[in-house]
Amino acid sequence: MSARFIQELLREYLPDLPNKQVYMLNNYLFLLKKWNKVYNLTSITTAKAMVIRHVLDSLSISEYLQGKRVIDVGTGAGLPGIPLAICNPDIHFVLLDSNGKKERFLQQAKIELRLRNIEIVGERVEDYQPSNLFDSVISRAFASLNEFLTMTKHLACGNAVYIAMKGVYPLTELDSISKDFYLDKVEKLLVPGLNADRHAICAKMRRF
């Protein structure tokens, strides 16, 4: 996996992205590949698949973010949080994960990529009590939709948007949403190069 090949792929798929951000995304993928040999952070290891399934998939929800404070719950190796933070430098991201190995990787990625707009928190979601609440609560592979909503509602400000990234249209999960929430919209995500269904489930808390 050469740096030049990764950069060419990123520029092909993201032609309007500034060179600095292309460089940072490239370095993130190389760091992930390096640490994966020991920490088993991802099963996706080929260059093109990493660009598509890690970077492009993560960035597909960028337009649905709201506000200046975002928390990525169960971020794992920093997905979707790190690619989003790289491409949205004016937004503050908290990356939450209780796995110690993943937390160490995230801390190293923050240092090497010089990401000043991210904060790493190594706690369980139910134990985390932020001093400031969040405008957007996001997750790519954390839990079922209802679990995601109910377990994170103490993290969100009153008008926050909850964005759950899913594969096929999750009809059963949508039918089981707690009465404390309502479905704002379901958007079909178009991820270049990915031959699979992807959806963003956007929900909000009801105001009683």
What's the SSE blueprint?
Blueprint: H1 3-13, H2 19-39, H3 47-59, E1 69-73, H4 81-87, E2 92-96, H5 100-113, E3 118-121, E4 134-139, H6 145-152, E5 156-166, H7 171-175, E6 181-188, E7 199-205
Parallel strand pairs: 1-2, 1-4, 2-3, 4-5
Antiparallel strand pairs: 5-7, 6-7
Helix pairs in contact: 1-2, 1-3, 2-4, 2-5, 3-4
In short:
The chain is an alpha/beta fold. The chain is built from seven helices and seven strands. 38% of the residues lie in helices and 22% in strands.
Describe this structure in words.
- The protein has helices spanning 3-13, 19-39, 47-59, 81-87, 100-113, 145-152, 171-175; strands at residues 69-73, 92-96, 118-121, 134-139, 156-166, 181-188, 199-205.
- Strands 3-2-1-4-5-7-6 form a 7-stranded mixed sheet, sandwiched between helices.
- The protein is an alpha/beta fold.
- The chain has a single domain, classed as Vaccinia Virus protein VP39 (Rossmann fold, 3-Layer(aba) Sandwich).
- The chain is 38% helix and 22% strand.
Main features:
208 residues; alpha/beta; Rossmann fold; globular
Q: How is the main sheet built?
A: 7 strands, mixed
Query: What is the overall number of helices?
Result: 7
| Low-pLDDT residue intervals, each spanning 5 or more residues | none
Could you state the CATH homologous superfamily? Vaccinia Virus protein VP39
| Strand content range | 15-25%
Largest sheet, spatial ordering of strands:
3-2-1-4-5-7-6
The arrangement of helices and strands along the chain is HHHEHEHEEHEHEE
| Overall CATH class | Alpha Beta
* CATH overall fold name: Rossmann fold
Average pLDDT taken over every residue: 95
Q: Over all CA atoms, what is the radius of gyration?
A: 16 Å
Can you tell me the CATH architecture? Answer: 3-Layer(aba) Sandwich
SS class: alpha/beta
What is the number of E strands? 7
